[in-house]
Structures are given as C-alpha cells and as structure tokens.
Design a protein that fits this description.
- There is one protein chain.
- The protein is mostly helical and 97 residues long.
- The protein has helices at residues 11-24, 28-53, 62-70, 77-91.
- Helix 3 (62-70) runs antiparallel to helix 4 (77-91).
- It is rod-shaped and about 90 Å long.
- The protein starts with 10 loop residues before the first helix and ends in a 6-residue tail after the last helix.
- The model has no long low-confidence stretch (mean pLDDT 84).
Length: 97
C-alpha cells in the first residue's frame, strides 16, 4: 500500500499520527506505564458511571412499619422501640415511631 502524503491528511488524522509516533518512540517502561495509566483511568471512569447509574434505594417508612407491628398482640412499647432500633440500623435511617 502506498504511503499517504501528509499534506492530504485531515487535522484529526494528523493528531492521531502524532500520537502514534510518540507511542512508537516510547521505551518499554514508558509504554507499560502509559497503558497502565490508561487502564486505571478507564476503570475509574467506569466505576463513576456505574455509581451514577445505580438505582437509588427507595425510602422506607419505619414509622409505618412500627405502626403495623404495634397491632400484634404481646408486643409492648419497649419491644417496639427495640425493633425500631434494629430496623434503623439495618436500613440506615432513624425511627420516627
């Protein structure tokens, strides 16, 4: 295949060519470091996108749960407070009983 003349390259092709030349001139150590840096940057970007796209947990109304539990025979105020604390710990919210 014939060599493409540089005067016929677009600005984008020139930028890609310059980058390729820089990479070809790198030592093995520089090349490995460059690739590792690119991989780490891609990993961070992917993780950030994953966190942004993760579904948000729905709010849990502990007060409504405790109100339902209050109707169960044999569960008093002290036991209800304990249940509210456990629910708050596991759901990472505060109980509004």
């Amino acid at each position: 295949m014939a060599k493409k003349r540089s005067c016929r390259r677009t600005a984008d092709e020139d930028r890609i060519h310059d980058r390729a030349v820089k990479m070809r001139k790198m030592t093995d150590r520089q090349l490995v470091q460059y690739v590792e840096d690119q991989v780490e940057a891609a990993r961070r970007e992917g993780a950030a996108q994953g966190r942004a796209q993760a579904p948000r947990p729905e709010a849990v109304d502990i007060g409504a749960i405790l109100k339902d539990i209050r109707g169960i025979r044999g569960i008093g105020d002290a036991k209800l407070d304990s249940i509210g604390e456990v629910l708050g710990r596991y759901l990472e919210v505060t109980a509004d009983a």
